[in-house]
Amino acid sequence: MEIDFLLIGQGLAGTALGYRLIKSGKSIRIIDQPSGNQSSRVAAGLFNPVTGRKMVKTWNADYLFPELHSFYKGLEEVTGESFLMEQPIYRPFLSIEEQNEWMGHSADEGFQIYLKEIYTESQSDSLNDSFGGVLLKQSGWLKINVFLDAMQKYFAENLQKEYFEEHELRKEEGHWVYKGIKYQAIIFCNGLGAMNSSFFNYLPFAPVKGELLELKQAFCPDYIVNRGCSEFILEMGFTG
Fold this sequence. Notes:
Layout: E1 2-8, H1 12-23, E2 28-32, H2 39-42, E3 46-47, E4 50-51, E5 56-57, H3 61-79, E6 84-86, E7 89-92, H4 96-105, H5 109-112, E8 115-119, E9 133-136, E10 140-142, H6 144-154, E11 159-161, E12 169-172, E13 175-178, E14 181-188, E15 212-216, E16 224-225, E17 235-239
Parallel strand pairs: 1-2, 1-14, 2-11, 7-16
Antiparallel strand pairs: 3-10, 4-5, 6-10, 7-9, 8-9, 12-13, 13-14, 15-17
C-alpha cells in the first residue's frame, strides 16, 4: 500500500494541511495521539490583524486574514458545524499620544480595512479607557475544539488515534515506510512533540507556557476587550 503523505499530529497545523492536501488530490494518513498535552486544544483561539505593544499589523496580515475567513467559512459548510466567531476587538488607548497615533492610522489605506471605529472617550465604566480606544474588525476567535472534533469526522478514513512510534519509521529508496505502509513524504505537525524526535532534537527549541483565565462578569460587550478591564470577576476558574 502506498500513500502520498503521512502527517504526525491533527492540531491546527495538521488539520489545515491535511485538508489542503486532500483538496489537491493527494492521499494522506494522519496519526494523532489520543491524549496528552496538546497545545491546539487549550489555546484561546483569538485572531487579531493588529497586535503587539506597538500595535502593528500581524505578519502578512493583508494576505492571511482574507484567506483565514474564507478558509474557515468553507470548512463550516463542509462539516456542518459553526466554529468561526467573527467579533470586533476593542483596544483601549493608554495615552493621548497613542490616541493621536491611531487618528493618524485612520488615514492610512493599509490600516483602513482593519479599523471599524476610533473613540476618543471612554466606552464603559467597566473599562480603563479614559482616552478612548480603537475598535478593530476582521478579528474574533475560533472554537478550536469544535473545529478539531468536526474535522476528525471529516478525516475519519484517514485518521488514526494512536501514538506515533518513530522507531517503526524507516527510509527506503525514494520513500518512507511506517508499519508496512509506504509514504512519499512525512510531515511533522506535532509542535513541541518534535523535541522528542531524533530528526529535530538538535534544534534550539524554547518552549513557552500560556495560561487561560476563565471568568464570569457583569460587563458583557459585543466586542472582545484587548486590555483595560477594571472590574469583573464574579466567579472564576483557572486552567494553566
